[in-house]
Amino acid sequence: MPFYNEKAYELGSNRSIIREIFEYGKKRKSEIGADNVYDFSLGNPSVSPPEKVVSTLKTLLSREDQTGLHGYTSAVGDLATRKAVAEYTNKSCGAGLDPELIYMTCGAAASLTISLKAVLKSGEECVVFAPFFTEYKVFVENANANLVVSLPEDKTLQIDIKDFESRITEKTRAVIVNSPNNPSGVVYREDKIIALCDILRKKSKEYGSVIYLITDEPYRELVYGDVKVPYLTKYYDDVIVCYSYSKALSLPGERIGYIAVSPKTKDAKEVYDAICGAGRSLGYVCAPSLFQKLIATCADAKVDVSVYRKNRDILYDNLVAMGYDCVRPDGAFYLFVKAFEKDAVAFCEKAKKYELLLVPCDNFGVNGYVRIAYCVDEKTIINSLSAFRRLREEYLK
Ligand code: PLP
């Protein structure tokens, strides 16, 4: 028997399928040239950070006193940053956030890990909506709780309210909503959110408990046209917002985001203290100082979403015309496509023959789909179309 932790070993040695494809893509690009590989594997933003972010960073870095800039902030983050976050979000979304209930983090992954650890007890359940971001399983199990998957409506991939209700038990302590969704790009409609919140109120009353709604928001700002993403604190009281600037400001490598406990949450101050305790126990204190200072000025900055929208339009319109079956995404930068055979892994292997790198989504909670991350150059999208056509033709033969 090994002396190290076997569960940790298992997680570390089984690389995520997305990372594996990404690594394959790097190798393939070195063999045949980057322009000849259509790598749609990774959700790495292809749009540069907003000009305001770049210029603020330059100003910060040219300050004479560099010590304070890089020093520890308070464990929960600078008050100036938390005030800026609350002010912007309250103004733009009517969120009702309180700076005293905000905890700055290293991105959404940290926000989720901390929040789940703060509210879940051993053996409790956390419901997620398929298709879902695969790391949820890792994060929930890290809190010694169990992941429960609610299946979506067939054609729309919206929340299936009946299915959701059937998943709630006395053990349910949290529900994660991710909209716009990774991997489908679907934005959950307001009527679905209202119905979901009604069920949560009914069930918590029935069980005499609190069921926390955890809203995972890295793609909130990436929506197309006049699509609105309902802000959940307006529909339900016990809400924990997990936000990240990774995609909103194209800063995924800088690791900056936050957790906000809605002031309407039952025992909000205590829940916030539990967030602080979970952050402490996981070693997630004092989010990157430089980027906290940046957010204090740039909470309202925006990336140019029109670039992603154009990619979405070219890809979606062309693939549908070729006979691919996919839901038109209203946000994020992913297209969720039905494979032409039951086995999505086999489909992705065939796609590789045409240098198309797609992600099979069997462990995203629904079988037979693949994800295309279209956060790439427009040129890559246009050049990839003939490969998608040939892949389609192979299945028509
Ligand atoms: N949640 C979802 C749905 C994501 O897609 C991602 C990253 O792609 C994360 C959380 C983690 O985000 P971050 O990079 O800010 O930790």
Strand order of the largest sheet: 2-8-7-6-5-3-4
Bound small molecules, deduplicated: pyridoxal-5'-phosphate
Separation of termini?
Answer: 52 Å
Tell me the number of helical segments per DSSP (H or I, 4 or more residues long): 14
Overall strand count: 12
CATH topology of the largest domain: Aspartate Aminotransferase, domain 2
The profile of the biggest β sheet is: 7 strands, mixed
- What's the gyration radius in Å? 21 Å
Brief characterization of the structure:
This protein has 397 residues and is α/β, with parallel strands linked by helices. Helices cover 43% and strands 13% of the residues. Helix 3 crosses helix 11.
Q: Which helices and strands occur, and which strands form pairs?
A:
Elements: H1 6-13, H2 17-32, E1 38-39, H3 51-61, H4 67-70, H5 79-93, E2 102-105, H6 107-119, E3 125-129, H7 135-142, E4 146-150, H8 161-167, E5 172-178, H9 190-207, E6 212-216, E7 239-244, E8 257-261, H10 268-282, H11 289-298, H12 306-322, E9 334-338, H13 344-353, E10 356-357, E11 359-360, E12 369-373, H14 378-396
Parallel strand pairs: 1-10, 3-4, 3-5, 5-6, 6-7
Antiparallel strand pairs: 2-8, 7-8, 9-12, 11-12
Helix pairs in contact: 3-11, 5-11, 6-7, 6-10, 12-14
